[in-house]
Amino acid sequence: MAVDKEKLGKVSIIISRGTVEGIYPGLIMANGARMEGIEANIFFTFFGLHAIHKKKMKKIRVDTVGNPALGIPPIIGIIPGMSAMVTRMMLKEMDKLDIPPVDEFLEMIAAAGANIYACKAAMDMFHFTKEDLIDEVADVLTVGQFYEIAAGGAIIFT
Amino acid sequence: MATKTIAGKSIEVDAEGFLLNPDDWNEAIAEALAREEGIELTEEHWKVIRFMRQDFKERGQIPTIRRIKNAGGIPVQDLYRLFPDGPAKKAAKIAGLGKPQGCV
Fold this sequence. Notes:
The complex is a heterodimer of chains A (158) and B (104).
Chain A: E1 10-15, H1 20-35, E2 39-44, H2 74-77, H3 82-96, H4 102-111, E3 115-119, H5 120-126, E4 137-141, H6 143-150, E5 154-157
Parallel strand pairs in A: 1-2, 1-5, 2-3, 3-4
Helix pairs in contact in A: 1-4
Chain B: E1 2-6, E2 9-13, H1 27-36, H2 43-59, H3 65-70, H4 76-82, H5 87-94
Antiparallel strand pairs in B: 1-2
């Protein structure tokens, strides 16, 4: 925009959930920040860690049980295969918009210069090691280290 | 709508300087627009610009970074190196296309 405003210099985005709808908004925001020349960090914690776990990232699904906005009654949502089917449909729609699968998206975001971090407490809780995570993960951080890295920018929790 | 003289040619642009009509574009205009962004065009830049214009011509859409990577074969790192601080927008601007409207 032509309006002269002070530009946002840095965002640090926390991704705490492990569902499609929990992971993607943070990825889109981090990628979008880099596209605008804004420095970006992503900090994966709790089930959000599944997005950067080599094996678990392949099994990320839409939650079809606890999500009334989806329009699927919970009793239907529990049917085996329902979540996988809804996930396929959603990813197909996203692909039309050129929103990539999680693994490709993380590669792109890292290549765009965003820093990807994992939360130490959640890693310890789930007994994950750094080797379980994709190579794009720069480091495993404590909360204190995260705040140091996030200093001077906006923090967004998703 | 505004008119701007770029590389000796009077051209219609939007408020942010994106060309309104991609057919007004030529290589001298690309060089002038790039200079405004502080970019000196090299063969690597031209590869991106040519792909974007060709893809736009074929599909009627400004290619996303993902499409430039997958269909154009240009790695994301290179795009950010060639067009720093906003590759999708800067490359589209220099290529004489409109402002990209997507979120990715």
